[in-house]
Amino acid sequence: MEVYFDDSISRNRRSGQPGKEIKLNKDFVWEGQKGSAASLYVFPEGMVMDICLSIPRDDAEQYFKKWNFERRTSYLTNEEMDELERENPFLERFKVKCKVNGSSLKWKNMYAVGWHPFSDERGGIDQEAEFFMNHYGCDRDGVWKFVRCFYLWEAERQTEIHTLDLIFQSEPMPYTADHFITKVGDAGKKISFTHPVTHEKYRLEICGCEFGKLPENSGHMFPDREEMILPDNMQMLTYRVSPEIAGRDFYIQDTSQSDAPKKCGEEIISASAMSVSVIGGMEGPAMDSQAGRCKETSTVYSSLHFKKVEEIQWRIVFNVKGKKDLHLSIAL
């Protein structure tokens, strides 16, 4: 299999020379997930590594049974999409940090493809997956995910590779903890909720809820479509959470979609999949001047609508890391 440093899943924008393959064949188990660091490909610019992951057949069958093609391609709410992505065994997100001969490499990017033997879902298999299957001799009764990672030499190019140190790092996935409703003017309301994985208890206090409008110069989101009118009404919710949670681990989101932009002269279009988001939709921490009982607060904005909306349903979401880091050392 020829691998190029500017390789992509489309395989149609290649340049330069193919890399030199160094076979690794290093098997590992990451919290029950069997896999193999299969091969390296060395280039003047950096290095490419292929990883083969074996997916339990039962997991794939259950996923396709629950999330069949019709359901996957239908309209899904943000919460349903989060659930689909968590349960998709082909979609687990992670990065692999890499050191060669003790020197760190710079992460460039990665892509992944899946392969399975289920005939009624074969249309979703990319030809790229067949190249991986054939090159690495994978069992065709199994279910597979292939990950190709790209790295840049951080300092000088390593002409010979003696040791390889890898750290597999799982990326967080969103879990909905609870829902609540706010009305304009709400303040002082307290909502208890539980972390959906750790079961820790938290309390959210609403410090303020008021109408807001998108700034008049926000048309820059559609610079080539001046005839489009954007919805500009929203709710601004100011809140605090105790115990305090790091911003990257937690967020609050409007459960409804924004109204679709409309052309001048058109009637208002109801919320649809073509939604508009508020740029920088979350802020924090900030000092809230309206509610004396709240000191340090955060602010979140609702979806956008052409008409003012008095009542909004929100969802409380935690970003949860699924696996602990896996360290893997390989001597060549």
Which features does this protein show?
five-stranded antiparallel beta sheet, eight-stranded antiparallel beta sheet, 10% helix, 332 residues, 44% strand, elongated, mainly beta, 2 domains, 4 helices
Topology diagram in text:
Blueprint: E1 20-30, E2 33-42, E3 46-55, H1 57-66, H2 69-72, H3 78-87, E4 94-100, E5 103-115, H4 127-136, E6 143-153, E7 163-170, E8 173-183, E9 190-194, E10 201-213, E11 228-229, E12 233-242, E13 250-254, E14 262-263, E15 282-287, E16 296-301, E17 311-320, E18 326-331
Antiparallel strand pairs: 1-2, 2-3, 3-6, 4-5, 4-7, 5-6, 7-18, 8-17, 9-10, 10-12, 11-14, 12-16, 13-17, 15-16
What's the arrangement of strands in the largest beta sheet? 1-2-3-6-5-4-7-18
Number of helices: 4
Instruction: Estimate what percentage of residues fall within beta strands.
Output: 35-45%
Q: Give the rounded overall mean pLDDT.
A: 86
Radius of gyration: 24 Å
Gap from first CA to last CA:
21 Å
Helix content: 10-25%
* Sequence stretches where pLDDT stays below 50 over 5 or more residues: 269-293
What form results from the Cα inertia axes? elongated
Main sheet makeup: 8 strands, antiparallel
DSSP E strands, number: 18
Secondary-structure element series: EEEHHHEEHEEEEEEEEEEEEE
Q: Quickly give the structural class.
A: mainly beta
Number of domains: 2
